[in-house]
Specification:
Strand order of the largest sheet: 2-3-1-4-5
Distance between the termini: 8 Å
Number of helices: 8
Mean pLDDT: 92
Shape: globular
Low-confidence stretches: none
Oligomer: single chain
Order of helices and strands: EHEHHEHHEHHEH
Helix content: 40-55%
Radius of gyration: 17 Å
Largest sheet: 5 strands, parallel
Length: 205
């Protein structure tokens, strides 16, 4: 199973993910220990860009395919050797396409078609999107190369477009795919809502 937590910069998704980690750790201290196979994953593309020294291609087509390659690899490996694991992505395939459209790395129509084709792959199954939205923008605790390109309103608009375009694929019970949207009110209630949503997805699948 793959759970992808998506949201624009400043939506507080990483804060909520950290609270989810804490809540799962506490809950798993007691039977039935249903969270022992949960793995949290965040693609360290910014770190790789720095260490491999290819910041200069961030706006290029080649960078788009770098950003989606990790998801394609995990989708392939999951069914082969990791079918018992639950992967939780802090951003995933949708963020990759949103940012490639935002940065105009590839033609927008081509990217939209490509994403739909990806979601039609047999390997895209038992994938669950949790989108985090917020009425108030949270400040980030770090700075990276993408900050100068941040446009939260445009990012949310592109997320809306891609989710609406592909809703029949990402919220599809036949393929065990689902979509949930949570409004982050920057409080404990929002943290509990994410935890309950996460637990519901696990129990249904």
């Amino acid at each position: 199973m793959i759970i992808i937590i998506e949201g624009a910069q400043g939506s507080g998704k990483t804060h909520l993910i950290n609270s989810l980690k804490r809540n799962l750790k506490i809950a798993d201290e007691y039977p039935p220990h249903q969270f022992k196979n949960v793995i949290f994953y965040k693609y360290k593309h910014v770190e790789y860009m720095d260490k491999l020294e290819f910041n200069d291609i961030e706006g290029d087509e080649s960078f788009h395919y770098f950003t989606i390659s990790n998801t394609l690899t995990i989708l392939g490996l999951r069914d082969l050797v990791m079918s018992d694991k639950v992967f939780v992505f802090d951003r995933g395939i949708f963020s990759a396409y949103v940012w490639s459209i935002l940065r105009k790395r590839v033609d927008t129509d081509r990217l939209k078609k490509e994403l739909t084709n990806l979601l039609n792959l047999d390997s895209y199954n038992n994938c669950h999107i949790i989108r985090i939205k917020s009425n108030a923008e949270m400040s980030r605790d770090h700075v990276d190369i993408f900050d100068k390109h941040t446009n939260v309103s445009l990012e949310n608009n592109i997320f809306d477009q891609l989710f609406n375009l592909n809703m029949a694929l990402i919220n599809n019970s036949v393929n065990k795919n689902s979509f949930t949207e949570i409004t982050n009110k920057l409080d404990k209630i929002s943290e509990i809502e994410l935890f309950q949503t996460f637990r519901t997805i696990l129990n249904k699948n």
